[in-house]
Amino acid sequence: MSRPRNLVVAQSGGPTPVINSSLRGVIEAARDLDQIGTVYGARHGIEGVLKEELLDLSAQSPDEVALLRYTPSAGSIGTCRYKLKDGQDEDFERVIEVFKAHDIGYFLYNGGNDSMDTANKIALLAQKRGLDLVGVGVPKTIDNDVGDSEFKLIDHTPGYGSTAKYWMHAVQNANEENMGSCPADPVLVLQAMGRKIGFIPAAARLADPAREMPLQIYLAESPCSLEQLADNVNDQLRQNGRCVVVISEGFDVGSLGEVKDSFGHTSFGSSQITVGQTVVNYLNKVGLATKGAARGNVSGTDQRHSIAYASCVDLDEAYRSGQKAAELAANGESGFMSTILRDPGMIYNVRYDKVPLPDVANSERTFPAEWITESGYDVTHEFVRYARPLIGEEMPSLPMLDGRQRLARFEPIFAEKKLPEYELQADRK
Amino acid sequence: MSRPRNLVVAQSGGPTPVINSSLRGVIEAARDLDQIGTVYGARHGIEGVLKEELLDLSAQSPDEVALLRYTPSAGSIGTCRYKLKDGQDEDFERVIEVFKAHDIGYFLYNGGNDSMDTANKIALLAQKRGLDLVGVGVPKTIDNDVGDSEFKLIDHTPGYGSTAKYWMHAVQNANEENMGSCPADPVLVLQAMGRKIGFIPAAARLADPAREMPLQIYLAESPCSLEQLADNVNDQLRQNGRCVVVISEGFDVGSLGEVKDSFGHTSFGSSQITVGQTVVNYLNKVGLATKGAARGNVSGTDQRHSIAYASCVDLDEAYRSGQKAAELAANGESGFMSTILRDPGMIYNVRYDKVPLPDVANSERTFPAEWITESGYDVTHEFVRYARPLIGEEMPSLPMLDGRQRLARFEPIFAEKKLPEYELQADRK
């Protein structure tokens, strides 16, 4: 067997409650894989590679690594929205230079479709430059928008199950609020993440599979005018005296004063007015069918870092996707993403497998049109059947210390810098 | 001993994660108090009394009553924002009439200062009208704004500890988000409830008593210009590259297109633009000291119905405040509120006592000025010392069933109506 070579793992894009579970899977798997030497975490994703900021994860306490399970978001090694674009040759060359300097034989990139493209390009360029580098992807998004629409490349992404569970709780509790407060506040509008793809708002239905709540779910894929939306809400008010509305941040309600990120995606978190607020204002302007006012919650990043609501199924699957990626790397399977494939039939079961990075990079998942009900503002039982197993049964048991969450804390042990400083080529946003 | 007479319990104003624990305390205590017959819950507070909608709580399954511990907000019997104002004599007379019709000897009103005033007025009027009615208050608010500023009438209100714990978690997790995402999103603005009083945003400090986070806390009591706020944030960015801002919904940032509720309070949940959004927009307009954009979360009612984050201390204290109120009622102690008083000294311990309703109604709590730091955007360790015991040590263990929270569900068993229908005198908003 050849000598062990080092591994760099990096995170990209928006974090999830379980992104650190994948990281833990990589670190712990690498301990048992002789082909892998030191595991480095790139500080803030590819930016950390460019700046040669490589956190030594093999040198961290095993307890802190295990605590990654209960540590949401990307604070431990950091993520970024820096995109290595075609034409930014200097950036690409710098990545190879850094990898050579630190004897990196394995590069694991944890992200969405864009990141799979980047991981693949880096692996290919490395070969050209005479560096034997294995590039492997690790799937991640709360949006569940990685892979294809037929769920063949990946059934669901780590992160989605936990955000789906967040929405199950949010809507159960918001329904109690709305039920209790309806004489004064008959309409409660909750804005969900997910840009153009409706998997997150759809998860609201998991709070009420039996359809007992006055719940309306608006996906970006099923647009209607504000006027129509207000009519729907008022119909519900006349019927039930109250209404809970879950709406996608990407639902088309006219101009929001949008801000774009470096991927060209709208950064809804930075918009001048939110979809939720626009809907609340419209409803209060045209007036409700019952007395009282509409009010709204825009929980924002809370839905991607509320570890108390994480799905134990998702936590486990994220971990195993990370393990699988490390295993693929050690086996020299460059150009693949570790993936989660669901067995057919009634019994929920998955296997961890690999799919080619270019297939993932060139695919675009959409929310199945047949899972949107005829009314346009709800999802079908087929969606519930798909998503229900992903949220599991139990609440995770968070370790608490002195009244606070005990979060993973790494020592600042970095690889020694061996190259001159480097200036990033692209803007981050 | 005289024959048992019936009890009406009603909720008023904004709900809390533990408001149902107080309700449970009343129901379960009444089982052991021979003076009390049937316990009725007024459907949607005083509105339910006026409309003679009295839910029979004594007829409910003991398991469902016990589940009130894990059922947030006021969905079980309902709250309202209907205020019995002086001059609405018809409403007051109707309340007495309904109480007479159902042999009500005890009226327990769960709310804030306004509700304590109403409870007292109803008890006094009842005496005048020849109805022997014991009126007792049960304290409640997430804002901790009941009672006096010296904490002599009440140390803290049930509900506050849980919302404080919510903010401890929210800021711990948001800090992970901000730490991980800072190259692209260096500023995360979180809007907290609490109108004019800063106990809720102040609780953000519980996430970081050692002051290791780049955290700024803006209370309505310590106003500054948006320009000054942006300067503070940019100073923090220059120092740490990131900043988490927690700001009160009532912080003065100019016009918000406000909506008032029936108490004359601003209903921030229905404003046309939120304080959080205004701050995000301003920061993005003037520009940040580092690259990237500001983004914001307005979690809204989530902070008052996230039962997963409830404080076990608060759950217990809310329950016991309810028990105490039932005990006061049974003992004929009309015109009092059950209260929580803290023992002096280092050891956290409370006793359940009574204070006169008019004292509570006529008091107005303020956030102690000496607990705001010199910078104006933080709170002192004295605040932490006050609030730390209220959030407890453990997470509550939520009962889950089929992947969802198992919430209390009452049967619709109502007292038979004995009076003609009645039209409410006041608007709800």
Write the SSE topology.
2 copies of one chain form a homodimer.
Chain A: E1 5-11, H1 19-31, E2 36-42, H2 45-50, E3 54-56, H3 62-66, H4 89-101, E4 104-111, H5 113-128, E5 134-139, H6 160-181, E6 187-192, H7 199-202, E7 215-218, H8 226-240, E8 243-248, H9 275-286, E9 294-298, H10 302-305, H11 312-330, E10 336-342, E11 350-356, H12 357-361, H13 381-387, E12 400-401, E13 404-405
Helix pairs in contact in A: 1-11
Walkthrough of the structure:
Chain A is 33% helix and 16% strand. In chain A, strand 12 and strand 13 form a beta hairpin. Chain A has a seven-stranded mixed β-sheet, sandwiched between helices. A four-stranded parallel β-sheet of chain A has the order 7-8-6-9, sandwiched between helices. In chain A, strands 12-13 form a two-stranded antiparallel ribbon. In chain A, helix 1 crosses helix 11. The first copy, chain A, is of the alpha/beta class. Chain A is elongated and about 70 Å long. The first copy, chain A, folds into two domains: 213 residues, Rossmann fold (3-Layer(aba) Sandwich), CATH 3.40.50; 148 residues, Rossmann fold. Chain A contains 13 helices and 13 strands. At the A-B interface, helix 6, helix 9, strand 9, helix 10 and strand 13 of A face helix 6, helix 9, strand 9, helix 10 and strand 13 of B.
